[in-house]
Prior knowledge:
Elements: H1 9-18, E1 24-29, H2 34-49, E2 56-61, H3 66-76, E3 84-89, E4 92-98, H4 104-114
Parallel strand pairs: 1-2
Antiparallel strand pairs: 1-3, 3-4
Helix pairs in contact: 2-4
Amino acid sequence: MNMPEMTTMEELQETLEKSQQRPQLIFKHSLTCPVSSAADKAVRSYLEEEPSEAIDYWWIAVQRSRPVSKEVERVLEVRHESPQVLLVSGGKAVWNDSHFSITAAALTEAITGNVA
């Protein structure tokens, strides 16, 4: 499953607009953090196994796209963590988690519980 990198404010705005019709998952990833590397492996493992086809998936490299990462925090009113995953529906974060809590099983459970 494809997980494009979000790098612009326009892509974030489009993602938030799309969330009115279809849930969006945003993964905020630090390129230098070992914990974030482990979370990245968990997210990619989830995407390789049984990803929900009802969701669009995005990732943000926080070092390359810091303004976008900060805007996610501001708009969704979820304090920034890295690594962090947010499930967005209806323009709001309906679930988020960070650090070692990001696992393939946690993603499956959160998505199953929040996506019709």
